[in-house]
Amino acid sequence: MPSKKKQYPGPTFGLRTMGIPVYEKELERGVNAAVFPLERAVYVSPKSGLTASRAEHELTHLRQLARYGILSLPAAGLQNILTILRRRDVATESPWELEAYERQAKTERREKAETKARTAQYAADKRRAGRARSTSEKVSDK
User: Fold this and answer.
1) Considering the domain boundaries, does residue 37 fall inside one?
2) Is this structure's pTM higher than 0.90?
3) 44 bridge partner residues
4) In sequence order, what E strands does 1-116 have?
């Protein structure tokens, strides 16, 4: 009897709305999320959770699978062999991973910029509220 897949309860950053199932699963140590190509699904470690940048990384792998179709697994295998022959790390330096890490970094930069803008807006709103409060106190004192 096949085991029932547990839906990932955390935020999926739009993956589900794109029709990509997201499941919770214990993965190898150090692995936060993974794409399973034959299922076209993303699995997330319950301990680490999923960030927007990590979701983008896994989504990039799904795009690569869609781009190369049936040839994606042999093509990835061949690229991994060439990466090993060049004495490089397959997990970080294969062309597929380099593309995914590049998109992940781009998403992280965008997230940082958005957070910085929100923080600046919050500080400006707080200053404005403080000035308005001090002005109203001066008016009520008179």
Assistant:
1) yes
2) no
3) 24, 33
4) 6-7, 22-24, 33-36, 41-44
